Amino acid sequence: MINKRNMKYLSFIFYLFILLPASAQQILTSISTNDDSEIKNYIQKIGDLSIEMVYVQDGTYTMGSPSNEVEREINEIQHQVTLSDYYISKYEITFELYDYFCTTTCRREPYDEGWGRDRLPVINVSWYDATAFCEWLSEQTGKTYRLPTEAEWEYAAKGGVSDTINNCRYFNYSGSNNVDEVAWYTSNSDDKTCLIGMKKPNELGLYDMSGNVWEWCSDRYEDYSTAIQTDPTGATSGFYRICRGGSWNSNSKYCRSAFRSVNSQDDCFNNLGFRIVFVE
Asked: Which residue from 33, 70, 123, 254 has the least number of CB within 10 angstroms?
């Protein structure tokens, strides 16, 4: 309902829009019209800390890599996947968040290799550890948090752009074809993890989807099917879980959005962490 206060505001904007030059009009228009996905983003508070969650709209996209992509692997067969909408954390889960979880649940804190903690991505956590964090956060908030499926991870890494969107761009890495713009990897990391959010984000505003640390996914590994799939969750059995994104000690090949890697569920490495998703 438009009241007198709103009418005065709208009248002010109208007259300001008429009087301003074209360049200023464009700025004012961009401020006045927020993107739907940005409006749906939210911040999950947990104690004195917070987790920024980014909305990813449902859509159908081509998972895998094109046959002419440089350094492509044979297990990246392209196929169509349809996903429901979900939220994914803007950053990799940090030591400060994971340490708070450990303190609250009387768990032993993972080793940081002497590189520091706080806003560095947590490392030396197994798939079981990452899943336990999600379960704890779900209990604390009343929302269901979990690790992303491999399909959700790749869709987010590719900017959450559906194949139905015209003129969409395909990047080898998450947000760029220049790995140095978006990733901490073997050529620029100084042989250790780096602070989250320091590189260029991708189209969704997600940071470090390429490089810094590998990220656990919920799926067990299986070869891709060429059939169209809806909300796939991977194999129903097996001990190896998907890891995505490359890390601080990876070559650029492994930081590609389509590259697939696996680890045993109980593996803990100093280049392996995770981020989380929430589905309403």
From this structure: 33
DSSP 108-141: PPPP-TTS--TTSBP-S--HHHHHHHHHHHHHHH
* Tokens read off for 11: 């009248």
Taking only the tens place, the pLDDT of each residue in 18-72 is: 444 433 333 333 333 345 667 899 999 999 999 999 999 999 999 999 999 999 9
Q: Which residue has the tokens 């590259």?
A: 259
| Cα-based angle 268, 251, 176 (whole degrees, multiple of 5) | 110
CA distance 76 to 34: 35
Length of the chain: 280
Q: How many helices (H) and strands (E) does the chain have?
A: 7, 12
The answer to whether 204 and 157 have CB atoms below 8 angstroms apart is no
- Domain spanning 41-278: CATH 3.40.50.10490: no
Q: What is the SS3 assignment for 224? A: coil
Q: Are strands 277-278 and 145-146 parallel, antiparallel or unpaired?
A: antiparallel
List the domain boundaries for the chain: 41-278
